[in-house]
Specification:
Blueprint: H1 9-18, H2 21-31, H3 34-37, E1 40-48, E2 61-70, E3 73-82, H4 91-107, E4 119-125, H5 145-151, E5 161-164, H6 177-191, H7 202-205, H8 210-221, H9 227-235, H10 247-264, H11 266-282, H12 287-293, H13 299-311, H14 315-321
Amino acid sequence: MSEEDLHQPHDKLFRAAFSNPETAAAFLQAYLEPELVALVDWGSLQVEPGSFIDAQMKATEADLLFTAKVHGEDTHFYFLCEHQSSEDRLMPLRVLAYMVRIWTGEAGSAKGAGRLTPIIPVVVAQDNRVWKTSTQFHDLFQLPPQKWEEVRRFLPDFSFRLLQLVELPFEGIAGTADGKLALRALKAQAVGELLGDPVWEPSLLRVVSARVLDYLIRYVWNQDVDKEGFSLRLRELPRTDLTLETMTLAQRIREEGREEGREEGREEGMRRAIRSLLEVRFQVVPAGLFEELGLVRETERLEALFQHAIRCASLEEFAAAL
């Protein structure tokens, strides 16, 4: 796993699941108004490249833009996942800023042709408390009702669909297996239940994509959870297809090796980490290979061997590097 994969874990998990149009379509069909759902050609849904959130907000939000046909015309669905720890009453203003960025980019493109595409914004709130923020942009203005009509035509106005995960029971989250698992994990992180049964439900874990399961493991590892409990969940995982690819598991073993290194010497800690990693990946490892590994003393070479243990396709390939 690269260092980049350790950054913005909420964003990584969200995108791993919902950049798939099938997953996004199932979510939107479950949580948008039925009248709108009936008008959309869901087979035309496709993800658009890019992100429209502020650079300073990248650590607390993730976004995706989709296009689908509504009444035969292109319509954007802007999907924003908000994972700040506190409610933002200016959310309607931030959503408007992102919508303007989308339209500005569209107007400057070759396909703009002087027309803008409608945008339907959807916000998913990960907070552990229910928001009281209005989803109506006009509620940001402190105007008496009798004066509102006089100035209304001079002001932009819109609403956005707000889905608050804290209000949904885990089993009530709808969509594909990938979408359910991602949203359950995001909800569980906010309420302190990342190692709970709803996230690690075997029937769900058996059918999610390998990519989303991989990102789930990375996501949990980057949170403040009981590492022993996490290790137990990994041992009980009803899947074996991630063993060769899950770099987060390797990172966990690396950290364990560092802890052991502080107590027993860095070199011995690294050797233990390599041994653990090889056993996780290949199950049965010849004792002679460990004996040969015990002869390696240089820290830098042990670090290189650890990286090789992550990437090698077989024990033979690893042994050739010793």
